[in-house]
Amino acid sequence: MSKKSFIEIVPIFFDGSLGISDKEDYFLIPAKVASEMGYESIILSTPAMDVGKLMQKKHKKVNKDIQIIHIQKWISYLRFLFQYKDAVIFANDRVAKSFIACFFGKHNIFMSHQSRLPKKWWQRKIFLFFVKKFDAIKVSNPFEKEELIKAGVKPERIHYIPLSIDHEFFSKKVSTQRKNEIRKKYNIQKDEKVLLFLAHVRKFKRIDTVLQAMHILREQNIKVKLIIAGKDMLLNEKEKSIQEQAEQLGITEQIVLTESISQERAREIMNISDICVNSSIHEGQGLVVYEASSAGLPLCVSNIGSFTSVFTKSALFHNPDDARKLADNIQYYFKHPQIAKRHVTINKKIIKERCDYNIVTSKLKELFLKV
Predict the structure, then answer these.
(1) Structural domain spans, the chain
(2) Residue 27 carries which DSSP code?
């Protein structure tokens, strides 16, 4: 008897790893779980554009059980899916090749990786037309589930399974000596507090709000530095760079830019930070916020459903464009360390109970058995 097939559709050129912890590699994990369940596990990498020589590498084995196949052209893609009429299909992201997967396979699952419904009415119509045809929808936070239910998706088809967080890794502390070395490297004085903004910076991350909050804190003589750990991608979106914005606000000396960093370096920076800040307009789950929580940082984050539905009473929230409220929230934690400590304890418990790797993979197995 031949193996059952599991096909995971990944809408980028995926070569077997996102370059993050194995316990957080959200494209690899579903295929790995399916393989452990006895499926012939295939990751179907479907980049929207031709990626040149990389496309010549048609097949790759992640390990002896998981195969990666790269397909860019629509005809080849549809032909491939037609061959697997009895497969379980797991489609990622709001792209056409993922949407169309609802018409293929014996059972199919969709994961949006976004929490909000599309803004424009016609986009919502298209989105819901396809989503309602999937056998199951995997969501990463309670807000996303409620949004889909309100839009008419049957509740029994929606499964809340967060992305896995390597909380054991991020909760490890570094030595005092290493902390001092990192503070010295970034020219952080002994009496300066540290805010951490961890992300590749695009417009929707609203770094402008965070920078404006830093300006407010500077005007109030609050000694604080902001570490922005990630690549500045704003110029690609025809926006002012972080450096330009900081210069205009007069806060250049309060800003530290690290560019892209490894998870090991991120953990070290978390160890010298006092608060994690995030001002995104939207997030699917927001892995870095969960990682920072695991490292023991209180959260000053935007009041989007992705965060408020999880950290309901254990974070301080602000509107993504409200720099004044963000600055006030930051000061509140500085003035009330016991409240910050209590919130951290609650958040660590949430992440361990919902996002532990073993818990997440167990729930994925349950989902794959149901469809």
Answers:
(1) 5-164+356-370, 167-354
(2) T
